[in-house]
Amino acid sequence: MQVWLEIGTLKLKIALNDTLTARKVWEALPLEAEVSTWGDEIYFATPLELLQEKPQETVELGEVAYWPPGQALCVFFGPTPISGPGEIRPYSPVTVIGKVVEGELEALKGVRDGEKVRLTRV
């Protein structure tokens, strides 16, 4: 399962993993929302209300996760305001659902709060 994440002219391909959470996101596509930023993370609300699955307190560069308290999808492209040295730490535990496999993560640094994001199947 692969999806496109589009913000303006920025386009990233994400490979979803084999979790129940990733399958629920896939079934809900297409999704459109407004982006919020937090350090080197973008996130956006979804209509999904899912329980935590395999919660992680830190993530890897380029990982995409579902954050249950905000019912949001998050894309991590660097440290957040609470990251320690050499780590990427979400605000609270997340369920990793995939990873960016194509496109420039660095371009996410130019994304601003309120921009429109679209998530569709490849």
From TrEMBL:
SUPFAM superfamilies: Cyclophilin-like. Signal peptide: none annotated. It comes from the Bacteria. Gene3D superfamilies: 2.40.100.20. Residues 1-119 form the Cyclophilin TM1367-like domain. This is Cyclophilin TM1367-like domain-containing protein. It comes from Ammonifex thiophilus.
